Amino acid sequence: MTAAVFFGCTFIAFGPAIALFLFTIAREPLRVIFLIAGAFFWLVSLLLSSLVWFISVQISNKESAAQQKGLLIFGVVLSVLLQETFRFAYYKLLKKANEGLLALSQEETMPISIRQLAYVSGLGFGFMSGAFSVVNILADSAGPGTVGIHGDSQHYFLSSAFMTMAIILLHMFWGVVFFDACEKQRWWAVAAVVISHLLVSCLTFQNPEYVASLVPTYVVLFLMGVWAFYSAGGSLRNLKLCLTCKDKDFLLANHRSR
Amino acid sequence: MANNAEDIENNMDQQQTNTAPEPPQEASVARARSRGGSGAGGGGGGGGDAGGNSSGPEQNGQPPAARPPLVVETEEDEDEEQTLKYGAKHVIMLFVPVTLCMVVVVATIKSVSFYTQKDGQRLIYTPFPEDTDTVAERALNSILNATIMITVIIVMTLVLVLLYKYRCYKVIQGWLFLSSLLLLFFFSYIYLKEVFKTYNVAMDYFTLAIIIWNFGVVGMMCIHWKGPLRLQQAYLIMISALMALVFIKYLPEWTAWLILAVISVYDLLAVLCPKGPLRILVETAQERNEPIFPALIYSSTMVWLVNMADTDGPKRNSTEAASPQQETQQAPIASPTPSSPSQDDGGFTSNWISNQEHQLGPIQSTEETRREIQQMPSARPPPEDDDEERGVKLGLGDFIFYSMLVGKASATASGDWNTTLACFVAILIVSCLFWCHVRVFESPQKPISSQYATPLYVNRLIV
Known about the structure:
- The complex is a heterodimer of chains A (258) and B (463).
- Chain A is mainly α and 258 residues long.
- Chain A has one domain.
- Helices cover 79% and strands 0% of the residues of chain A.
- In chain A, helix 3 runs antiparallel to helix 4.
- Chain A is globular.
- Chain B is mainly alpha-helical and 463 residues long.
- The radius of gyration of chain B is 25 Å and the shape is globular.
- Chain B is built from 14 helices and six strands.
- Chain B has a domain of 291 residues.
- Chain B has a two-stranded antiparallel ribbon. In chain B, strands 3-6 form a two-stranded antiparallel sheet. In chain B, strands 4-5 form a two-stranded antiparallel sheet.
- At the A-B interface, helix 2, helix 3 and helix 4 of A face helix 2 and helix 13 of B.
């Protein structure tokens, strides 16, 4: 375990997220604030679910391994449900705040649209979730030791990093799809988000068979990404225009000539 | 009463005057708190407060301009949106230094073991030991410690308020000077020593002396006099971090948490109660139109006030120590009439000058020509024609206490980074909420002037 492992895993886990942050969020103070608020909401949901888990572990039979495993599964499911509940609560809060601001300012446009909020809050959730998953592992990876010296998998750090990256991006996609579904009152979409979150979390029970957990996670990531892209108003035409630098709105907004 | 200096500071809204004059902003508005270390030991906090210079009457004693209602509405809407945007921008401007300070403290705690070692030493303010046999004894000791510490802080605050009220500025300045001297030289020497020990770096005393001397002297200059803005900000962050580290080391655990809790309650009381010492301080400062104790406030911008040619050039309002000199300096700003030329004209006798002027035109740059060349708005004394240039201020005490919270959390959490992260996010979010709340409720119409109150009570509830 060397500096190479530490930096490599850090950049794998947080690279895309930090890039997204730097390019799209860092310049707008309002977005930064909503990002941190999103992170805070995720934190509160984790606090609640960990409280419940802690209490249930204390009153359980600590000897029985099966019971502990059962409790773990219960804890994971509860945590996922609470996270999604808090995502919904954050959505409600943001709607109210936005409406309030709109009423106050009597203007047509809000300073930040609900779609941007969806993206930013999803990323906030993702940052916090990823940080909590991987920061302790990263701290350990910088120190002395050999991974898997007792016969465990040697790919622990690397797969944790990849899983974290997937989770962060997934949270962002879930945020976008979730808010959009709430806006349009499509509750099946909300349920789909919750179910995919449950699926990804439960896939981690396959560890240490990392192939079995990582590959499906990345498939889900890709699918959710496509869904989020379409629900955010993207299309193949948009994509083509963007990639060939012919998108007029984008160019106008960024003061570039065609 | 028309306060000239304040009007200049708040003159940004000349083109946005509303039809209704703004109510004068209250002292409860926003204040920057400071805990300048004083004297011995761990620098038991002088609970000095730096009062808020909030906006006074918004017009210069002129009747509000009559405008068609439609225009006013649009301006109000723009104002609203701008309020939100600039509020957010100012909050972010405070996030960055607070984050930096916390990062420095956490990094030090995690790497330099000195600050987490309990070598049995205690501050004189916390004489009761916490390594007792029973929990009850420990609780009792920590309550006693906290009581002593809080009493000390309250007494110091009262002393400070009294000194300020009776205009003993020299004493206050001397006190602040001494305490920053201690921080910049002694504590940073200890810090450097421990860092060298941790990383096993060999260093001779001569080099160390030169480093510490330079660091300290430049620090004193930047904080108490003039210096580049970034350097001053960096120094303020460093001394806040040093202070927080000292507190983390020398305050036993339960005492520390208790003190943090009680301080925030006290803070709230002292600021909001009509007879609270900090409120008196703030109100006195407002009456006298002085910015208080710049050495204890972190400010994100400097206010440049361009004067006429005969006084000494651009002044930095927010970074100069409050002194009687400043009052006299502020007076000429309001009425920029040229005063008499200095005695020493360097050989350019008036004869020669009039000759040149006759041939070439005016050679003395006047206020107007300078303004023209510098492309500043003419006939408008304050250079701040944009909200963005009015920065925000935050008391160093808040830096210290935020960092102390995070540092304590990371010190006691035995290698777990999740606690530190959680604490960090919680502090940011709650402070941000509070700053936004203060801002929104202070000035529904206009962006306010730049000082915030930050009691940490809500923080405690969360953390």
